[in-house]
Each structure stands twice: as structure tokens, then as C-alpha cells.
UniProtKB/TrEMBL annotation:
Pfam families documented for this protein: PTR2
Alphabetical list of NCBIfam families matching this protein: yjdL_sub1_fam
Species the sequence originates in: Thermogemmata fonticola
Protein name: Peptide MFS transporter
Record InterPro entries: Dipep/tripep_permease, MFS_trans_sf, MFS_Transporters, POT_fam, PTR2_symporter_CS
Family: Belongs to the major facilitator superfamily. Proton-dependent oligopeptide transporter (POT/PTR) (TC 2.A.17) family.
PROSITE patterns xref list: PTR2_1, PTR2_2
CDD domains xrefs: MFS_DtpA_like (cd17346)
């Protein structure tokens, strides 16, 4: 058995035991629906991160491996536009679920679209003649070089763009609504609520951990189509679990469209019926879709989705348009928040200024962090020695499992650490945590400079890449949970949802901005590995220093920011 498959088997065994223990320890505390939705989310994230680990490698791989052989600067544009749309579409998907579909139909429709997207990507691959893992034996770099006897790209571009569009739209319906649905099974103030979301987010990271070791390994050894097919099968399994959950009545009325206005004809469950659902709170929801105008029905939403597919394909292909769209949205957002802040009193106005400042720094953070799926992925392919200790060899995409693994290991530590520090009055303020996150991110990039010094034949030891991911993960744990929580506390109640939408818009802008950073690492066709390594390290040093300077600026501003927060922690 190849070592890559042995690692995959061990990971599945360990995770299987871990999941069984978690469910056994919590099954009497939480409703059964939580664990079923936990499994649905696990498989959806398995599908999503499987594609994320493979996309840039697939786009730039040689035709002889079944890929497209797209020049890296173009591939980075496709990847960036896809990532940006992944964060934009949930804004519409959440609204459509709240107003028309309800959570059940929205999640189902999103899962169907994403499964179709993965299988469409599987069909888009060209004929494989050698595995991607064998490409490293070739003398030239793998991005822009066309080997003799191969075409410039053997994949089907139309199917590739169609697959990405389906994934983008499916994610918009699925992602925001399954998280919101979990919250419906717990009343505000329920002491089980935080524990439920901890279990749910564990499913996200388990899926993200398993898929690079599974889809990535299969794709790079057996062929790209098998990798995407595996991701699609994972999504189908998640969809099957969701359909079972709905069929057994575990979802209850919480997943249905909202209660219509008084006086409209519809049936609803009674409080007694809701109370009989395991672990549910006693609220009344509509169990049938209320009468709506024809343009506010589920059928119109489904048809509208098909109409949106060509638009999504066009935006991914003409990704430079996304630059202008997101630049415009970003400027409008800042101008709107400044303008609306003037309508509030001094306390709320200054709190909104804090949100604007943190939006800038979080965009910087994610612009650099999300290079993991693009420039760092290509760097791993071209300039990282993937042979570990004791003869263990990893594929390029396997390294995408390091971040979620470290999250599962260190997230409980961070949770306990903040509580421990708070009890002693030592917990740093939110802007200081942001600065710590940025500093750790910058340090991670600078570690690769040490890797360059230890490189043999322009191949950096894998240990330095793993250390980079460790520092990036610690930075993520310091910044990400704090940011989401802080927006909900700082935003005026009337526009809290809007401010949260702006927060996710910053992630979309960050993905798109990452395109320009990634393009700085591109070397001319036919360049040596030494030239590729030198160029990449120069860019990573620049990124690392920018992150450290940003951390320093934020740290210097933290006394002012704390004053503007007016007691919010």
C-alpha cells in the first residue's frame, strides 16, 4: 500500500473513533437532530474543501495529467473569483431562505447544486497519461510549460466553469442556512447552545481535515476526475443524511418558511406538537408554505438559480470584472457606514468606526491567509520536499489538512486560555487579539525564509511549511472568533445583520485581492526551480513584513479603539 493511502486510512480510523466518542458523550444532552446536522455539515465541508485543495493544482496541471495547463496568473484569477463568489452568494441565499424557501428547501437545493457541481468538474477533466504525483520527476516546472506531444489543455472549459458556478450557487443556499438552523433548536440563554455550536464547528474541521487526505490523494494519484467524484459522493452522502433527517421528522417546524402575517391561510403546529419534538423549544412555526405572490415562490427561486448560472460562469471567466464589483461594493460599504454612523449618538457612532477599522485589518488578514489555496499550494507543488520521516511521502494537496488539524488541536486550548486570563484580569482586548493574529500570520510567512536557507536543490523541507501553517492557525484562532463576536456586540441592533453582511463582504474582497498577491510569485515559462523559489520567498517576505507592520499599527491604535468601544469586550 502506498504511504499516502496508509495515512488516509489512519486518519479515517482516528476520526471515526473520535466522532463516535463525541456523540456518545453528548447524546443525552443535545437533541438527535444536532448530530445528524453535524454529519451533514461534515460531508458538505468534505466536498467543499476537497475542491479547494485541488482547484489551483487542477487548473495549472499539464495536459498529460488531465488538467488544463492554464498559465498561473490566469488560474489565480479564476480561483480568486470563485472564492469571492463563495462569500457573496450566502448573502442572497440567507435572504431567500428567510423570506421564501425556509431552511429545509434551501439546504436541500444547495446540496443538490453542489453535488452536481462536483460531478460536472469530474466530467471536465481531460485524459490522464501520468499521475500528478509523477510530474515532479520532470525537469521543468509544471505551470506554464507544455510537454512535447501534449495539447495546451485537454480539459473541457465549459464544463469546468459550469461546475464552479454550480458550486458557488449551491454554497449560497447551503452554508448560511444550516448554521442558522442549528440555532433554532436552542432558546436564547440555553446553556447547551455554545456546546452545540462547538460540536457543529467540529464537523466543519473534521470534513476540512479528511478531504485533502482523501480527495487530494485520490486526485493526484488516480486522476483529477476521481478526486472530484469522491468530493461529489461525499456531498451526496450528506444530502442523503439530510433527507433522512427531514423524512423522520427530526427537523420539525424550525426548518420551514416563517409564519405568515396574521389572517393568512396556512396550517401551523401547536406549541404542544413542537414541544414533543426532541429537545426543541416551544415556538410556533409554519409547516406549510404560506400563500405568496407568484414571484415569491420556491419555483421562481429554482428557475432563478438556473438563470444565474451563466452569470456566475461569466464572472468567474471574466474575473477582472469582480475586481471592479468588489472595489465598488467596498467603497460603498465604507461610505454608507460612515454616513449612517452620523445618525447615531457618540457611543454607537464610535463603535461603528471600530467596525470599519477592523474590517480593514480583517481584509488584510484573510487576503494573506487565503493564499494557502493558491500561491502556497503552487509553492508546495514546486518547491517543497514532500518526503517526511521514515519514508512517509505526502501529496501536494495533503498539506491542506494541516490547518484544520491544528484548529482541532489548539481551539480548546485557546478557549480555556482566554477564560483563564480573563479571571486574572489579563485577557487582552479585542484589538490586541487582532494584532496578535496578524503578527502570527506574518511570522508564519517569514519562517519560509529559514526554509529557503535549508533547501536542497531548491526544495524546502516540509517541516518549515508545517511550521508556517501552525503559526497561521494560531493567528486565525486569535482573530477569527473574536471578529465575528465583536461585530454582533458593536453594531447597533437595527443594522446588526447588515454589519455582519459587510463582514463577510470583506472576506470576498480578501479572496479577490489574493489574486494580485499570488500573481507576484509567477516566474517566466521555463524558469528553474531555484528562480521559482527565490521569487516566491521574496513575495512571502513582503507579505510577512506587511502583516507585522499592520499588527504594529493596530497595536498602536488599540488604546483609541478600546476607548471607542465604550466597554464592549
Amino acid at each position: 500500500m502506498r504511504t499516502e493511502y496508509l495515512i488516509m486510512a489512519i486518519a479515517w480510523l482516528v476520526v471515526g473513533i473520535w466522532v463516535a466518542l463525541v456523540i456518545a458523550a453528548n447524546r443525552k444532552v443535545h437533541p438527535k437532530v444536532l448530530f445528524l446536522l453535524f454529519m451533514v455539515e461534515l460531508w458538505e465541508r468534505f466536498s467543499y474543501y476537497g475542491m479547494r485543495a485541488l482547484l489551483i493544482l487542477y487548473l495549472t496541471s499539464l495536459a498529460i495529467t488531465g488538467g488544463f495547463n492554464i498559465p498561473k496568473d490566469q488560474a489565480y484569477g479564476i480561483y480568486a473569483a470563485y472564492g469571492a463568489l463563495v462569500y457573496l452568494t450566502p448573502l442572497a441565499g440567507g435572504i431567500l431562505a428567510d423570506r421564501i424557501l425556509g431552511f429545509r428547501k434551501a439546504i436541500f437545493w444547495g446540496a443538490v447544486l453542489m453535488a452536481a457541481g462536483q460531478f460536472t468538474l469530474a466530467l471536465s477533466t481531460g485524459q490522464q497519461k501520468i499521475p500528478q504525483t509523477d510530474v515532479q520527476a520532470l525537469p521543468a516546472l509544471t505551470g506554464n510549460t507544455v510537454l512535447a506531444g501534449t495539447t495546451e489543455g485537454s480539459g473541457n472549459f465549459l464544463l469546468m466553469y459550469l461546475g464552479l458556478a454550480l458550486l458557488v450557487l449551491g454554497n449560497g443556499f447551503f452554508k448560511p442556512n444550516i448554521s442558522s438552523l442549528i440555532g433554532r433548536y436552542y432558546e436564547q440563554g440555553d446553556p447547551r447552545r455554545d456546546g452545540a455550536f462547538t460540536i457543529f464547528y467540529m464537523g466543519i474541521n473534521i470534513g476540512a481535515f479528511l478531504t485533502p487526505l482523501t480527495c487530494g490523494t485520490i486526485a493526484e494519484i488516480e486522476g483529477w476526475s476521481y478526486g472530484f467524484m469522491t468530493a461529489g459522493l461525499g456531498m451526496c452522502l450528506g444530502l442523503t443524511i439530510f433527507l433522512y433527517t427531514a423524512a423522520q421528522g427530526y427537523l420539525g417546524p424550525h426548518a420551514e418558511p416563517p409564519m405568515p402575517a396574521a389572517g393568512s391561510a396556512t396550517s401551523s403546529t401547536t406549541n404542544e406538537e413542537v414541544a414533543n419534538l426532541e429537545g426543541n423549544n416551544t415556538q410556533s412555526f409554519a409547516t406549510t408554505t404560506p400563500a405568496q405572490p407568484w414571484y415569491l415562490t420556491a419555483s421562481v427561486v429554482y428557475l432563478g438559480t438556473f438563470a444565474a448560472i451563466p452569470l456566475a460562469m461569466w464572472l468567474i471567466h471574466h474575473n477582472e470584472v469582480m475586481d471592479w464589483i468588489l472595489l465598488g461594493l467596498g467603497l460603498i460599504t465604507v461610505a454608507y457606514m460612515i454616513r449612517i454612523s452620523l445618525a447615531y449618538d457618540l457611543v454607537e457612532r464610535q463603535r461603528m468606526w471600530v467596525i470599519i477599522l477592523l474590517l480593514f485589518f480583517t481584509t488584510v488578514f484573510w487576503s494573506f491567509f487565503e493564499l494557502a489555496g493558491s500561491a502556497i499550494n503552487i509553492f508546495t507543488l514546486q518547491n517543497v520536499n514532500k518526503n517526511l520521516w521514515w519514508g512517509i511521502q505526502l501529496t501536494t494537496s495533503n498539506f491542506q489538512a494541516v490547518n484544520p488539524l491544528f484548529i482541532m488541536v489548539f481551539a480548546p486550548f485557546f478557549s480555556v486560555m482566554w477564560v483563564w486570563l480573563a479571571r486574572r484580569g489579563w485577557e487582552p482586548a479585542a484589538p490586541v487579539k487582532f494584532a496578535i493574529g496578524l503578527a502570527l500570520l506574518g511570522a508564519g510567512f517569514l519562517v519560509l525564509n529559514l526554509g529557503k536557507a535549508a533547501a536542497v536543490e531548491a526544495m524546502v523541507p516540509a517541516l518549515f511549511l508545517i511550521l508556517m501553517y501552525l503559526l497561521h492557525t494560531l493567528g486565525e484562532l486569535a482573530l477569527s472568533p473574536v471578529g465575528l463576536s465583536l461585530v454582533t456586540k458593536l453594531a447597533p441592533a437595527r443594522i446588526a445583520g447588515l454589519c455582519m453582511g459587510f463582514w463577510f463582504l470583506s472576506s470576498a474582497i480578501a479572496h479577490q485581492a489574493g489574486k494580485w498577491i499570488s500573481r507576484l510569485t509567477v516566474v517566466p515559462e521555463g524558469s528553474s526551480r531555484e528562480e521559482s523559489l527565490q521569487k516566491s520567498i521574496e513575495v512571502f517576505n513582503m507579505v510577512g513584513m506587511f502583516a507585522l507592520v499592520s499588527a504594529g499599527i493596530l497595536l498602536a491604535l488599540s488604546p483609541i479603539i478600546k476607548r471607542w468601544m465604550h466597554g464592549v469586550r
